[in-house]
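quick q for whoever's on today - can somebody do inverse folding on this one?? i tried earlier but teh output was garbage lol. tokens:
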């Protein structure tokens, strides 16, 4: 700690402050100003790191888990997307479990269903609301396909003046003819099979945001 006292304190005793002391006082003031500026810049940099949105595709590794970094910064500013309710429809129980695990671990509430008639019952008859629907196109249990179920949903939404619920097809065929058919029936996106847990989470997040 320097023994040099500020000029105001030195003058309070009635003595004069020599030129060397004045120079030292000025130097200390300059050093203090630079120190305050450095601390302010460090605080601003920390704030930027906490709020910055990292470009899609950048990966984050923590605790041995490797997940898309694009999901993490948005979680701080858009937590509503992680409390969304998702209707996952697939006639294969294993695919439903994959979707539930991939999305549930990120905070989404996932409701499982197994055919198009479940979609009709849950939304159109029982009045449940979902933020997004993931639906298989081929249904083995009933005659109503995934496309038929989404078309029925779109017709019902128009009749009741409801905003369309985003619907994504979960399918093993994503060639252009299949995509065009899906879009014609009111499906807005595709999730390819076999289901990739990181890919489905990113796709769902993009549609919700």
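ok took a stab at it. sequence:
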């Amino acid at each position: 700690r320097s023994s040099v006292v500020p000029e105001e304190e030195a003058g309070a005793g009635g003595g004069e402050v020599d030129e060397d002391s004045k120079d030292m006082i000025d130097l200390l003031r300059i050093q203090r100003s630079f120190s305050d500026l450095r601390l302010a810049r460090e605080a601003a940099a920390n704030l930027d790191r906490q709020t910055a949105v990292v470009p899609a595709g950048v990966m984050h590794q923590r605790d041995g888990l490797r997940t898309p970094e694009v999901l993490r910064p948005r979680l701080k500013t858009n937590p509503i997307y992680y409390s969304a309710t998702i209707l996952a429809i697939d006639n294969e129980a294993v695919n439903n479990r994959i979707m539930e695990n991939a999305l549930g671990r990120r905070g989404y509430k996932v409701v499982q269903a197994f055919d198009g008639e479940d979609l009709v019952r849950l939304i159109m008859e029982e009045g449940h609301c979902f933020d997004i629907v993931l639906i298989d196109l081929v249904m083995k249990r009933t005659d109503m396909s995934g496309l038929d179920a989404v078309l029925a949903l779109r017709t019902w939404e128009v009749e009741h003046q409801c905003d369309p619920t985003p619907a994504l097809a979960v399918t093993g065929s994503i060639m252009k003819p299949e995509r065009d058919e899906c879009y014609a029936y009111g499906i807005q996106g595709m999730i390819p099979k076999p289901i990739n847990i990181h890919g489905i989470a990113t796709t769902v997040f993009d549609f919700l945001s």
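fwiw The longest helix spans residues 19-51. also The CA atoms of residues 32 and 38 lie 10 Å apart. so keep that in mind when u check it
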